[in-house]
Structure formats: C-alpha cells, structure tokens
Write a structure and sequence with these properties.
FAD/NAD-linked_Rdtase_dimer_sf, seven-stranded mixed beta sheet, FAD, about 475 residues, flavoprotein, FAD/NAD(P)-binding domain, 3 domains, alpha/beta, Enolase-like, domain 1, NAD, dihydrolipoyl dehydrogenase (NADH) activity, globular, 13 helices
Length: about 475
C-alpha cells in the first residue's frame, strides 16, 4: 500500500516549495517531489527561479553593474582605477555560490518544517496517486490533496536549435565562460534585456531582435519609450518588427538570418541567446486518466481558486494562467494551502508587481495608460523625473521617472509605473496603496524621508492634482 500524505506537491520552485512549507506549518503531512537538475547533474530545489532564473541573473547583473560603474561612472566621484578588469570565471563562480547557498537553504527549511522531500519526477495518476521516478526506481504515494507546481520551460523557435555552447537558452546565458565580442539575443523581454545588459556591461556588442512592433508591450508605453531611449544610449541595439528565420553554427560562430521590412539579412555572432518566452511544463506530469484538463495554451486549467477539474487537485505558478512571476507563484501556493486549511486564501491579480532588473530598473503594477483608454476609464496622470530628485542626483542616477495613474473622479490609484534607480523597491508602497484601495492623495499625504528616492513617488502623487513642489506642473 502506498504511503499517504495530506498534501503532495509536485515541483520545488517558488510556487511548490512555498506551498509545501506552508502546508507543513499548518500541521499537514507534506511531501514535495522535484526533478530539477543542475548543470552538474545534481538534484536541487528552487526550480528555475533559484537555479537558472531570478537569482543567478541578479547576481550577474550586480557584478556587471559594479564593473561598469568602475570603468565608466566612478570618475564623477573622483574615484579612478588603473587597468580595471573583470574575470568572468570569478563572476560565474560567485553566482553559483549564491545559488547553492539558497537552494541548500530550502532543504534546511524543509527539514526545519518537517517537509518530506523526494528528488525525482512526479506524475499524477487517477485517484490522487503520484508515481515518483528516479535513479533508484519507482514508487507510488497518495495525497488527500495534490498541488501541481511544475513550472515552465523556455519556448523554442523553428530553425534555431539550442546547444548551450553557441546557441543558448537562459541556462546557457548564465554560464558563458568568456565575454563574447558579439552577442545576439532573440527577444526583448525580461530575460533578453537583463542578460543582454549583463554582457554589454562587460564588453559585448549586443544586438537584440524583437518580433513585436512595440517595445515592452506589457509596459506603459510612456515609460517604455523613455526606457528604450536609455537602453539605446547605453549601447543595446534593439531591432523591433524583426523575425529570426534561422540560426546555424559555422566555424565556431552563429550565422543568423533575419527578416526586417520584408528584406532578409544575415549577421554573425559569437553567441546567440534565445529568450522568446516560456511555456507551461507539463511533460510527463499527467497520466491520461488522471482527469486534469489543459487549456488551449497547454496550461493546466484552473478556476479562480487554483482548483483543477479534479477534486482536491490544485495547480499554481507558471503552469497555470496569469503572469509567469515567482512571487505570483509563491502567493498562489500560500493561498491554496490556506484554502485547504479552511482559511481565506486571496490573491488580487490586479496588484501583482512586475520588475525588469535593467539599469535603471523598470517596475509597474496595475493598469497602463493604454489599458485605461481602451476600457474607457477616466483617469488623471502624475509624473516626476528622477533628475529632480536630490537622492538620485547624489547617487549619480538621475535617469527615469515615476508615473502614477488615478481615477479622475474617485482619485483611486489604478496604476504605478517606475523607470529609475531602485524601482523594484519603490513599487511596493504603490502595491500597498492599491491593495487598500487607496488614492493618489493618500500617497501624497504620507511623510517621506528626505532625501530618498521614494520622494519621487510622493512628488508624482502630488503631481496628480498639479501640486508637485519640485517640478513645474
């Protein structure tokens, strides 16, 4: 007879491991099954985010930022360096050390919270049975509740075969051994911009091909235009409405054929990064008779409470609808466990923040101006440039702006969009305001410490009613 658990979680990424810990904290007998393997062919918790996504990319972004500051920006502070250089192996090694520390930390959290963990592939069978396969063989367990949190995998494109030597996915992009003279990137989304920025800062000539005709279509276009100008100024060569038709490795280089304005062009790169998005990972996850249904997009079909078509089988994170964001997955995992425990699990998808960790950072929450126009919602705008913020000037980071959107009649904050230093942190007070159905005036009446970057949010809130002090209204 198979061992029984209260909760079996398939997937150990931000959605899965958080759900497992929360379930165990609630007194439920919990098992987490995860099959992720590192480049060294070792099992590791944390999923894409901790191993080959959010965390390692931020480590490389931080290292490359320090190098660029040394070589291009510290002179304004009166600081000079002689023969500054970056050792890529050390940069990659630091990244690996951080990843190992955090993934090992999850194992310790499992142990502390009494979460059982089995490394291997989990497949949902009928009657909430889970078949677990690894090098030691197979076993079957059962759960009163099953939480599917298998995450996502990179999307591939025709005629571009990833080998992670010359043609790279996000994993390969994190492990380049030396600075490529020329780096091509397919996709001007989060991964493309962040990884393109890393290697540009340390010396690569970076070209980004984007099929869409608008830059960062999910972002407020007023902010996106400001960001596009800055990235171009930095040296990222971004081509919109450009379609990569093929990529082939020839003589230790990648020959890329692309189409723009109806004409075909050929360009050669040392490395090519494929960053065209991700899709739900369901391969080997579901047996034919388990009863769980998929959507037309290949995601697990769930209702607003993350329930699948099978009783007591839930799905969270990248494998279901909604933005593929680690924090969204974690919150869904927590909410599902709260529902299992008979509590009120709640997520407001309108207040999930987005962040792109370029330099400066991009962060936003809520509606864009374009969405408000399309919906016919009356609104008013408040903006404030970081160039007029004392702390930003003192930091030598005056680029960017804050843009707030509030309802024209009620003044409720409907959207917040930030391009500038520390945007990933600044967006949080806007999220809190929106969660409490707060108004732009509420933000404007909060005393912000001086001098801080957060004063830019305060001044933008004041600007909504044309009361900003440090800019012309």
């Amino acid at each position: 007879m198979s061992e029984q658990y209260d909760v079996v979680v398939i997937g150990g990424g931000p959605a899965g491991y958080v759900a497992a810990i929360r379930a165990a904290q609630g007194g439920l007998k919990t098992l987490c099954v995860d099959r992720f393997k590192t480049k060294d062919d070792e099992y590791a918790l944390g999923g894409t985010c901790l191993n080959v996504g959010c965390i390692p990319s931020k480590a490389l972004l931080d290292s490359s930022k320090h190098y660029e500051q040394m070589t291009q920006h510290y002179d304004v502070h009166g600081i000079s360096f002689k023969d500054a250089a970056i050792h890529v192996g050390t940069m990659i090694g630091r990244k690996d050390k951080i990843v190992k520390q955090l993934t090992g930390g999850i194992k310790q959290l499992f142990k502390a919270n009494k979460v059982s963990y089995i490394a291997g592939s989990g497949k949902l069978l009928k009657d909430r049975q889970v078949e677990i396969s690894n090098e030691e063989g197979q076993q079957t367990v059962s759960g009163k509740h099953i939480i599917l949190a298998s995450g996502s995998v990179p999307v591939s494109i025709p005629n571009v075969e990833v080998d992670n030597k010359y043609i790279l996915d996000n994993t390969g992009g994190l492990n380049i051994e030396e600075v490529p003279k020329k780096l091509g990137v397919i996709g001007a989304g989060v991964i493309g911009l962040e990884m393109g920025s890393v290697w540009r800062r340390v010396g690569s000539d970076v070209t980004i091909f984007e099929a869409m005709d608008t830059f960062l279509g999910a972002c407020d276009q007023g902010i996106a235009k400001v960001a596009a100008r800055e990235f171009k100024k930095q040296g990222l060569d971004i081509h919109l409405s450009t379609f990569v038709k093929s990529a082939e490795v020839k003589n230790n280089q990648v020959e890329v054929v692309y189409e723009k304005d109806g004409e075909k062009h050929t360009e050669t790169f040392d490395k090519l990064l494929v960053a065209v998005g991700r899709k739900a990972e369901t391969e080997g996850l579901l047996s034919d008779d388990c009863g769980v249904e998929l959507t037309e997009r290949g995601q697990i079909d769930v209702n607003d409470n993350c329930q699948t078509s099978v009783e007591n089988v839930w799905a969270v994170g990248d494998v279901v609808r909604g933005p593929m964001l680690a924090h969204k997955g974690s919150e869904e995992g927590s909410a599902v466990v709260e529902r299992i425990l008979g509590e009120h699990g709640h997520i407001d998808f309108n207040t999930i923040p987005w962040v792109i960790y370029t330099e400066p950072e991009l962060a936003w929450v809520g509606k864009t101006e374009e969405q408000l126009k399309e919906a016919g919602i009356p609104y008013k705008i408040g903006t404030f440039p970081f160039a007029a913020n004392g702390r930003a000037l003192a930091m030598n980071e005056p680029t960017g702006m804050v843009k707030l959107l509030a309802h024209e009649e009620s003044d409720e904050l409907l959207g917040a969009h930030i391009f500038g230093a520390g945007a990933s942190e600044l967006i949080s007070e806007c999220v809190v305001t929106m969660e409490f159905r707060g108004c732009a005036e509420d933000l404007a009446r909060i005393v912000h410490a001086h001098p801080t970057l957060s004063e830019a949010v305060f001044e933008a809130a004041m600007s909504v009613d044309k009361r900003a002090v440090h800019k012309a209204n």
